[in-house]
Each structure stands twice: as C-alpha cells, then as structure tokens.
Amino acid sequence: MNPIPGASYFHLRLLRCFGIATILLFVSSCSILPATENLEIYQLPAAESAPRFSGDPLPWTLRLATPHSNYITDSPRVLALRQGSQLSSYKGIRWSDPVPVLLRNRLAAAFRADGRFNSIINGNNNNLVANLELGGDLSAFQVEYKNDGPQATIYFYATLSQPLRNRIVAVRRFEVSEPVQSRGTSGIITAFGLAADRFAAEIVAWTTQQGMALQTEARE
Asked: Which positions fall inside the ABC-type transport auxiliary lipoprotein component domain (predicted)?
C-alpha cells in the first residue's frame, strides 16, 4: 500500500504544534514570575489647613521641579530603614505615585494654599517661563527604626534658582521626622502625612523669604 503523499509532512507539523503547546502549558504552570501581589494604594493624608496670605503676592512665577532621587526612592514603594544601611519595603502597600512626584505635588498644594506667589508651575515644563525654580535632591522618604521608635523621615537638599539668569539663589538642607504613633499601616501613613506637612511649611516659608529678599534687591 503506497503512503499518502505529504502524510509524513503533515504528521511532522502536527507533532511540532503539539510539542509547542505542551511546552507552553508546562512553562505557564511552572512560571518563575511571582503571583500578583494584592496591593493597597495610598495617597498622603490631606494636609492641615493653614491661613491664606491676605496681602499682595510676590509678582513672580515659581516652578516646582520634580526632585532628583536614587533608584530605590524614585518608586512608589513605602520604604523602611531597619538596621544599619539596609533598606526594605513594606509588603502590600504602595504610594499612589513615585515618591518624588508625590512630594512635589504636596509642595505645589502647599504653595497654592499659602498664596504668597503669583502662580505655581508644577513639574519640569520648560516651555513655561518661571522667575524662580525650586528643585533639589530627595535622599530619604522612609521610616527609620531608632532606639526611641520608628519615625517617618524626609531628607531634602533644596536648590532655589533663577532660570532666566542661570544662577542659584540659595540652598538649604531640610530634615524632618515624625514618630509613628500606632502600629499598622494607618500609623505609618499618618506619620508620613504629618512629616510632609511640616516639610512643606518649612520650605514654603524659606522659599518665600528668599523671594522677598530678591524683590527688595530688585527695587534697590
């Protein structure tokens, strides 16, 4: 009995397809990828309201640049420094944005609520002209475990510059810590909110002071 022409080729293709399907099924069942983690996403708690400036604002536009940070901090992870210099992240919780963006947005809200600048540009949009630019390096946004308990900590090296004149006006290092008052996720998030409020209040006051000094200098 003569074989059917092309039968061997058909059988080879069938075996090949079956083999590929088997391999894919095996790989999918033994994947090295971890299972999807159930995450709770958090924003910073709402800022405490402060009285708005009632006088005439500085006639300048302030740009808030996204802070520079390292690879670990530039992420939505909620970080903890427990022993020595070893960083880890809390399982199951994340910020709503990468930390530099989260902090920049908090500063923008604080400056707008304060009202002492004519306008605020939020982000690295170089197409819009700004009289002053506030940027800097965010070296820490983490819970630090110390002898007196865990603390939500922010370390920020601020740089205030005049983009149109291509010069730095002032620099300052800010260090803010707030104790974590209760166990669990709510205590951690609350402490970060309080630390961000203090940080924003201090940097708004400092930036405004520098702006007023520059305005006085320009009038002389």
From this structure: 42-204
Q: Tell me, what amino acid is at 134?
A: L
For 34-55, the pLDDT digits (tens) are: 444 689 999 999 887 767 777 7
Q: Roughly what angle, to the nearest 10 degrees, separates helices 185-219 and 99-114?
A: 50
Write the pLDDT tens digit of every residue in 151-209: 999 999 999 999 989 999 999 999 999 999 998 999 999 999 999 999 999 999 999 99
Question: For residue 16, what pLDDT is reported?
Answer: 53
For 41-218, give the CATH class.
alpha beta
SS (H, E, C) the chain: CCCCCCHHHHHHHHHHHHHHHHHHHHHHHCCCCCCCCCCEEECCCCCCCCCCCCCCCEEEEEEECCCECCCCCCCCEEEEEEECCEEEEEEEEEECCCHHHHHHHHHHHHHHHHCCEEEEEECCCCCCCCCEEEEEEEEEEEEEEECCEEEEEEEEEEEEEECCCCEEEEEEEEEEEEECCCCCHHHHHHHHHHHHHHHHHHHHHHHHHHHHHHHHHHHC
